[in-house]
Write a structure and sequence with these properties.
The structure holds 3 protein chains of 3 kinds. By secondary structure, chain A is of the alpha+beta class. Chain A contains 9 helices and 7 strands, in the order E-E-H-E-E-E-E-E-H-H-H-H-H-H-H-H. Chain A has 2 domains: 112 residues, Beta-grasp domain (Ubiquitin-like (UB roll), Roll), CATH 3.10.20.30; 133 residues, Orthogonal Bundle (Fumarate Reductase Iron-sulfur Protein, Chain B, domain 2). In chain A, strand 3 and strand 4 form a beta hairpin. Chain B starts with 27 loop residues before the first helix and ends in a 14-residue tail after the last strand. Classes of the chains: A alpha+beta, B alpha+beta, C mainly alpha.
């Protein structure tokens, strides 16, 4: 560990509530240890603002180990900052150089309204989940776990999809504000497993339709995948598209399982 | 357990009726399910239940209660239930499935948990936990939790935390996230079909009681500052542990004890606050502004060797320290277990060498975890395959390459075994208020086994509370919940509003974060891995004086009508102060060492934790007596009929 | 849930949809009702249009055989299904199909773009993409994918120009004579501005095809992780072949390889004259 300190200049988006227009403000972050995380740097800036009797910058974070999906932020125009496969909370100041200018904005999309400063509401992602992000199995009605073998390959791919942390970076990074990567990850996690087959067609229709209530349309740029802290594959979007149109073609009342 | 075998044994306080049924432990729960009162399916919709917290325990409970037909209101201060800190659990979840045919059983899991908890848990609760562990695995699998599988497509297991059987189910390094997503999906289904009314971004700031019984809760809307009353027939607290009283811990930034503490102030006894689990393999703090600590999986100790320099204040790089000047202290002191000694032993020894001045790293606050021998033995590729993911996390946080130089690790607070006292029904001492998951004290005694936290949260939420709550509610048929227009709610609302606004008017000089950090330093120093009488007394004084300063000098910026994370934080810090005082007191009064609680005065000649079963084979449950008055201690005596008391040894 | 925040606060917990869901129509119209379905329509019509572009290009290579052969090819098109279906009928069926594909392709593109615009309304939506006030960096999106919403309209405008020039004969410089495609083509492309327009449009077309080909597998869900790399190759190959193939016409015209001086029927100014002239030549060659 080579502890050094750097000074950086921040351009931070300040917006006092959802109806406010918002603007950038400039802050100097002095003597920041390169070992501190990006959010700790913001903590320090906030402590300084409090010292100066100014209202600190509102931003959200919780686990700070890259799994809860609470943190967000567009850092220099990139969701979760410049490093691939990393959430903002895992970004460290050694990524930056002394004298750097860093622009910090909230994730933006019509369905991600700004609550305050850098904090946004991602309730629309939950709405997609409510629509079908589950397997109907009431507590107590489950058979023995080893009754249904799941091919290891299928379980692994389902796990790849299930790794999504619901942070919304895909929507933020998408030039269309589309939520395809999130939705497809959630759908495929369940649709790829034998347990999820009964509701497969209903699920994909319900979740895609809800997604389209709130988000834009995919043009296959692939920005979402680059921004994703869990590097969810674009293939899941294709699988979702296939299942969706299949669901329309099938009369699912008659087709049932297959 | 009021009946005791030994007439000389102390008596359980009459206020602590554990309601443990009599009989053979192996079918106690089965028989009890039959003897409890039931609520008719058509009547369930007449009962409303509030669930506070939507982590593993809360989400599973809310979903299951709604499936049964109860009217459920669920609350989380997060924007979504999926963000709860259950999500961060890496290792796995125990289930006594015996799929590996290696001799595991419900009884063995029960036995291991009681023993691992250093004989400070309630046998009946633990046995029930082990019983339902198998149902949890079934339930989670059916929900689509992508547990690891073998090539035949069946579930894979691993041995975890020194267990002698492979009973841990896992989903890569994110078992917590996958199980939480499972519980969250069950909750989603109930939100979609109207069974659960979901309130996100609302924080419970008080529990409301009327005539000693539960009436409801007061919440603050974190988006608008609005204070609201919610009434119900029962309130379930699933609000997690109090590990953040240490400021630095592996808990999430927002984890707090406020909901549990507010319930405590309304009459719920708080049990064993001195029990905290310190996890030995975390990345040491790098600077004063460190906001949290990151856990590295315990599995690293399987191949890494832990050492410090023999010399004091050795500033050389690890590579420059010759073999003869290294002290592999765990291997030296515990030849049989070596680097795989239990968590508490490993943690305490790390503290000892660091306190001696042999710590490593720029702040001298860590010990080395060295993989050089393992890499030489097994090859770089093997080590990469086993631990690559963890090495990457380490490299990202510290900027050091653990393949080239040893990792630095140090213990950090990880889990709290203490919590609200609950009976066999998981009900607190307030009728109608329940505590589940990490928020209660019940199953882990003085030390929790690895991969048991997820198990307990889900056991409570899916398979215990939904049964036991009916026993209480059945007697309330026909009673409407206390209306929110009742004076008890009005008074509580006013009190919460005043308390919140008062923080804004102090206008001191230091931030809530500052006081939290300072409090954490005291708690970590004095009530951390090793505690002694002198230190604990000092801790009490120091906490009191810091608290006084805090109340006079804290500065909370912003307003109370829009999102204000400073205002959220200050109330939580205030409650941590009160909790820290009780924690110090509990640690002082428990003049023995057990599990995660190590009193320097009570150790074997070899420096191991020495229990005092004669005097402390009990649960200490503290009763709130009002502002400025000390809590009263109540004891629940523990009986060990099945797991015989013995001294742990890892020599 | 009560909300007291000013302004747009009510959607902080209960998000407001950006569009209202309509009653589902019967299959297959319901596919069009969703954006995912529209993207599917866009991909299917894209495949059809890609086929047309390829066939059009290959057909036009007859120009290198000579004026009479090009004329013969044009006649063959008009006489498709010859002997069974009356002349021009099948061609018109194909043309109508083509027009329908164009129409659907454009409608899908326009409407999905509008959805994306609505979904981005608290950022700017400039040049067909959401834009952050502080700027945003593209990482994965390439030039082709980012310019789809420009290359599309460019191709449409060029298409109209192209039809006006070589099908309807509205442009004076071409000296349009129905029945003499070689003359029309060489007259048109020997004009430098027209050749430049042609080249620009074909570059746009190639970019459009490059991203479109890559993208359509994704939209149709025909992905297989094994072939993802090959998809890039296919997209680049198709775009490259079409670009090179189509650019031969303006470039070789400018270079004098395609020259109306080589056209024996260049002097005919009426359709009948041209047709008669070419038929005589073809007959003579046939003997």
């Amino acid at each position: 560990m080579s502890e050094t300190t750097i000074n950086v200049t921040l351009e931070v988006w300040r917006q006092n509530g959802p109806a406010d227009k918002g603007h950038f403000e400039t802050y100097e972050a002095r003597d920041i240890s390169t070992d501190s995380s990006f959010l700790e740097m913001l903590d320090i800036v906030n402590e300084q603002l409090i010292k100066e009797e100014k209202v600190p910058v509102t931003f959200e974070s919780d686990c700070r180990e890259g799994i809860c999906g609470t943190c967000s932020l567009m850092i220099n125009g990139q969701a979760h900052g410049p490093n691939k496969g990393q959430a903002t909370c895992q970004l460290h100041m050694r990524t930056f150089k002394n004298g750097d200018h860093i622009t910090i904005e909230p994730f933006r999309a019509a369905s991600f309204p700004v609550i305050k400063d850098l904090a946004i509401s991602r309730a629309a992602l939950d709405s997609i989940q409510h629509a079908g992000g589950y397997i109907t199995v009431s507590t107590g009605s489950a058979p023995d776990a080893n009754l249904t073998p799941v091919p290891k390959e299928a379980a692994d791919v389902a796990m790849d999809a299930a790794a999504c942390i619901g942070c919304g970076a895909c929507v933020a990074a998408c030039p269309n504000s589309a939520a395809q990567l999130f939705t497809s990850a959630k759908i495929n996690h369940l649709n790829l497993l034998p347990q999820g087959q009964s509701e497969r067609w209903k699920r994909v229709e319900a979740m895609v339709d809800t997604m389209e209530d709130f988000f834009g349309t995919c043009t296959n740029h692939g920005e979402c995948h680059e921004a994703c802290p869990k590097e969810i594959s674009l293939d899941f979007i294709a699988f979702m598209n296939r299942d969706y149109v299949k669901a329309k073609i099938k009369n699912r009342k008659l087709a049932g399982q297959k | 357990m009021t009946a005791t075998m030994d007439p000389a044994a102390k008596q359980t306080s009459p206020r602590l009726d554990s309601k443990v049924p009599q009989g053979d432990i192996t079918n106690l729960w089965e028989n009890h399910k039959f003897s409890m009162n039931l609520v008719n399916p058509n009547n369930k919709r007449k009962f409303s239940v509030i669930v506070v917290g939507t982590g593993l325990a809360g989400a599973s409970a809310a979903a299951t209660l709604a499936e049964l037909g109860y009217k459920v209101k669920a609350f989380t201060f997060h924007d979504s239930p999926r963000r709860a800190h259950s999500i961060a659990a890496q290792g796995g979840i125990n289930g006594a499935k015996n799929y590996q045919n290696d001799g595991d059983s419900v009884y063995r899991l029960f036995y291991d948990t009681v023993k691992g908890g250093d004989y400070r848990s309630r046998e009946a609760n633990v046995h029930r936990l082990a019983e339902v562990s198998v149902n949890i695995i079934d339930q989670a699998t059916a929900q689509g939790v992508p547990f690891a599988r073998d090539y035949g497509g069946l579930l894979d297991n691993r041995s975890f935390g020194g267990a002698q059987v492979s009973r841990t189910f896992y989903a890569r390094g994110q078992t917590g996230q996958q199980l939480l997503l499972g519980a969250y999906s069950a909750l989603n289904r109930q939100i979609e079909n109207g069974g659960v009314e979901m309130h996100n971004r609302k924080e419970m700031l008080d529990l409301v009681t009327k005539d000693g019984e539960t009436a409801g809760i007061i919440t603050r809307d974190l988006l608008t500052g609005e204070v609201e009353s919610h009434s119900a027939h029962a309130v379930v607290l699933a609000t997690g542990g109090y590990g953040n009283v240490y400021y630095l811990s592996t808990n999430a930034m927002m984890c707090n004890a406020t909901a549990a503490w507010r319930a405590h102030r309304k009459g719920a006894f708080f049990a064993n606050p001195c029990y905290t689990q310190i996890h030995p393999t975390c990345i040491p703090a790098s600077a004063d502004h460190q906001s949290k600590l990151t856990l590295m999986s315990e599995s690293l100790r399987n191949d890494g060797r832990i050492w410090v320099p023999t010399a004091f204040d050795d500033n050389r790089l690890a590579a420059d320290i010759p073999e003869g000047e290294r002290d592999y202290y765990l291997e030296r002191k515990y030849p049989a277990f070596g680097n795989l000694v239990p968590r508490d032993v490993a943690s305490r020894n790390a503290k000892t060498v660091v306190d001696e001045g042999r710590g490593v790293g720029p702040l001298k606050n860590g010990v080395f975890l060295d993989f050089a021998d393992a890499i030489a033995r097994d090859g770089m590729e093997t080590i990469k395959a086993k631990y690559g993911n963890l090495f990457d996390i380490y490299a990202n946080i510290t900027g050091e390459d653990p393949y080239q130089r040893p990792m630095r690790i140090y213990p950090a607070t990880h889990y709290t075994m203490g919590g609200l006292w609950v009976d066999y029904h998981l009900m607190t001492t307030i009728p109608g208020t329940y505590a589940i998951g990490e928020a209660n004290f019940s199953d882990h005694g003085a030390n929790r086994l690895g991969a048991s936290a997820l198990m307990q949260g889900l056991a409570d939420g899916y398979f215990v509370l939904p049964y036991t709550i009916g026993d209480h509610l059945a007697g309330k048929l026909g009673d409407a919940p206390v209306p929110t227009t009742d004076p008890v709610f009005q008074a509580a609302e006013a009190e919460v509003a005043d308390r919140t606004n008062q923080w804004l008017s102090i206008n001191g000089t230091e931030s809530p974060e500052h006081y939290h950090r300072e409090l954490g330093k005291i708690v970590w120093e004095r009530i951390g891995m090793a505690r002694d009488e002198n230190g604990l007394q000092k801790a009490q004084d120091e906490i009191v004086s810091l608290e006084e300063e805090f109340k006079k000098n804290v500065r909370v910026m912003g307003d109370n009508t829009s999102m204000n994370t400073e205002l959220e934080k200050v109330g939580r810090v205030a409650d941590f102060f009160e909790l820290a005082k009780l924690k110090a007191r509990d640690a002082l009064v428990r003049n023995e060492s057990c599990g995660g609680h190590f009193r320097v005065e009570s150790q074997t000649e070899e420096g191991e934790a020495l229990r005092d079963d004669e005097n402390f084979k009990h649960v200490a449950a503290w009763e709130w007596n009002g502002e400025g008055v000390d809590q009263t201690k109540h004891e629940e005596q523990l009986d060990f009929e099945y797991v015989k008391l013995s001294q742990r040894s890892y020599k | 849930m009560a909300q007291t925040l000013p302004g747009a606060a009510s959607n902080l917990r209960d998000p407001q949809p950006i569009r209202t869901r309509k009653k589902p129509l019967p299959f297959p119209l319901n596919i069009w009702q969703s954006a995912v379905g529209r993207k599917w329509v866009m991909a299917v019509t894209g495949v059809g249009l890609l086929g047309f572009v390829l066939a059009h290009m290959i057909g036009n290579f007859h120009v290198f055989e000579g004026p009479a052969e090009l004329h013969e090819y044009a006649e063959a098109l008009r006489g498709l299904g010859g002997g069974i279906i009356p002349r021009l009928w099948l061609l018109w069926v194909l043309r109508l199909g083509l027009i329908a594909m164009f129409g659907l392709h454009i409608a899908a593109a326009y409407t999905t773009k509008e959805i994306s615009r609505k979904a981005s309304d608290n950022a700017g939506f400039i040049s067909g993409a959401k834009s952050y006030p502080g700027g945003s960096d593209y990482v994965a999106a390439n030039y082709a994918s980012r310019t789809m919403r420009w290359t599309g309209p460019i191709i449409l405008l060029y298409l109209i120009f192209h039809l006006a020039d070589l099908t309807w004969g509205w442009l004076p410089h071409t000296n349009y004579t129905k029945g003499d495609p070689f003359g029309n083509l060489s007259n048109s492309l020997s004009n430098i501005p027209v050749a430049a327009i042609y080249i620009v449009a074909n570059v746009a077309l190639a970019l459009h095809i490059f991203h479109g080909t890559w993208s359509l597998f994704q939209s149709l869900g025909l992905n297989n992780p094994k072939y993802n790399q090959a998809r890039r190759g296919l997209a680049a190959g198709l775009a490259g072949v079409i670009l090179l193939g189509n650019l031969t016409f303006p470039i070789l015209t400018q270079a004098g390889v395609i020259d109306n001086a080589d056209n024996p029927c260049a002097s005919e100014t009426t359709e009948e004259g041209a047709v008669h002239c070419f038929e005589e030549i073809l007959e003579a060659e046939g003997e």
